[in-house]
Amino acid sequence: MADTGPDAAVWPNDGWLAHLALAPTATGSNGWSEAQTFTVPPGTTALQVQLTAPAGHVLQLAELTGADTPVVPGDWLQLADQPWLYLDGQERVRASAWQAAFLVPNAPQVPVPPGVWRLRAFTFDYDPLSQARTPTATTLEVAVDLLRKPAVTAGTIDLNLCLTGARGITAATAPDHPRVQAALHTVAQAWGAAGVSVGQVRYFDVPVTALDVTHDDGPDLELAALLRLAAGQPPGIPIFLLESVNLQTGGGLVPAAGFTAGLPGPLDVGGPRTGIALALQYDEPDLLGVVMAHEIGHFLGLFHVVEAHAQGETAVEDRLPDTAPTPQNLMYYAPDPAYLTLTPQQGAVALGGPWVAP
Ligand SMILES: [Zn+2]
Hints:
The protein is of the alpha+beta class. It folds into 2 domains: 13-147, Jelly Rolls, CATH 2.60.120; 155-352, Collagenase (Catalytic Domain). Helix content is 13%, strand content 32%. It contains 5 helices and 21 strands. The chain has helices at 76-79, 178-192, 221-228, 288-299, 344-352; strands at 17-21, 25-26, 36-40, 46-52, 58-66, 69-72, 85-86, 93-94, 96-97, 99-104, 115-126, 133-135, 139-147, 155-163, 196-205, 210-213, 237-242, 244-249, 252-256, 258-260, 276-279. Strands 3, 5, 6, 9, 11 and 12 form a 6-stranded antiparallel sheet that branches. Helix 2 (178-192) packs across helix 4. The chain starts with 16 loop residues before the first strand and ends in a 6-residue tail after the last helix. The structure holds zinc ion. Residues 294, 298, 304, 333 line the site of zinc ion.
């Protein structure tokens, strides 16, 4: 157990966020890394683990143990039929390529005990066409952001709108553009009710207009190249407004209203998985505001209240005790502009994470 309390050296940045860069680690040919340990000081309320690979490897959290308490149990990968998502634990984890982040807790029942924590990573390659997954050996950067936000009930997020010129929306026109401002109003309404206010909104021009994503879970050069256009921006959630966003599925390119590259978003503006891509082509009805608010929810660590499922299939619900698997919530898998509701526990997950300044 750690016996030293938080101090100025451990908790810079007004005392609520401390960055730990762990030593790089390697994964073997079975995809597993050696265990790494780090110390979580008393008073820590949440933490975000960030894994970064040098190339397009997919990164997953294979195990996370806090002071001998399993947070992500080390046997889940052996039991899972696929390594992308672990939805059955109290703490959910979702892999992504190049860089992946994991916010702990993402449900109120997940403990964050002080003491020595241990983590292991798993890396694999993914072919979106064959859906083949192959363990890979590589070297990873591992970082942990520790958060100290006791009983926080309010905070702010800054937004970096990255504008492509699609629909005539540029950094010059966006501050007075009715559609953009209506969308920001919807975001402020939805998140404000959960205690998360929109702080600064910044506007940037970026030189792209459309995006085809090979797979929104998979290695994708085009997506990473897009998100890297935010490099050098001040801390804020990068939100790209594109004419169209297309996801590659087994059946070909499917147009989407938007998606977030990371759930949660890594704390790395300009990194390959930090950002949200939204399509402007859906304007009747105009879904820009509700989709922006919904994707910000994923970016801040929220899963759908219920995942899309066919009739007769088991519905996979989130792990929050105060949500219901119904369309009357912003984080329903198909968000409806009529329902911007977030529950107190959804608000608490977002407020506890690194993107919301207390
Ligand atoms: Zn969603």
